Amino acid sequence: MSASKGRKNESWIILSMASMVIILFLTLTSRTSWVVAFEAADNSYIGLISQVLDEEGIQNITNSARGTISVLQQHLERAWTVVAQSPITNYTRHTFYDVINNSDMSVVSRMLNNALEQRISELLITLEGVEGAEVALNTHNTPNSASARVYVWGSNLSEEISENIALIVSRSVNGLSAEGVTVVHYGAQN
């Protein structure tokens, strides 16, 4: 009986050690991946974005020197959506993008505009019912008169989704109001 008890204890110790090794391995190999979600922001705007993310329970790291806010990779699209829908996006600020848009650097400005169009399109396809999206921004007008045309594909695109799309796009671009956003619906994407 005593030898049997000893083997059970030995088995239990070996099983416990194996479990600890597996847990330690999984902990060490599953590193979190942080990505820059927001950049070229001034210090006060960084604080506001960080506060919005904190209120939504999204972990974030700010780098005031670089003007960036990073989030975990798996929370990137949610962070963009939360900030785009937040009233802080109407906060008046002067950023690198404002300097570029008000200068004669048309090539750089167009590159930034294209990147912004792509980023907004990627954000829009995360909305329920939206299967594809293409954004065309016109930010070369006089200040506060920007416009946008958004082409979306999906099977159940409601008026509410159109309003959300206009809101997200308008809050993603300085000087763009929701009324300046035209949403064009197409059927399901082939």
Provide an overview of this structure.
With 190 residues, the chain is of the alpha+beta class. It contains six helices and six strands; from the N terminus they run αβαββαααββαβ. A three-stranded antiparallel beta sheet has the order 1-3-2, with helices on one face. Strand 2 and strand 3 (68-72) form a beta hairpin. It is elongated, with a radius of gyration of 24 Å.
Summarize the helices and strands and which ones pair or pack.
Blueprint: H1 2-29, E1 34-38, H2 43-55, E2 60-63, E3 68-72, H3 76-85, H4 96-101, H5 106-124, E4 132-138, E5 147-153, H6 159-172, E6 181-186
Parallel strand pairs: 5-6
Antiparallel strand pairs: 1-3, 2-3, 4-5
Specify the number of helices: 6
DSSP E strands, number = 6
Strand order of the largest sheet: 1-3-2
Structural class: alpha+beta
Key attributes of the depicted protein:
47% helix; three-stranded antiparallel sheet; elongated; three-stranded mixed sheet; alpha+beta
Outline:
It is built from 6 helices and 6 strands. It has helices at residues 2-29, 43-55, 76-85, 96-101, 106-124, 159-172; strands spanning 34-38, 60-63, 68-72, 132-138, 147-153, 181-186. The chain is elongated and about 80 Å long.
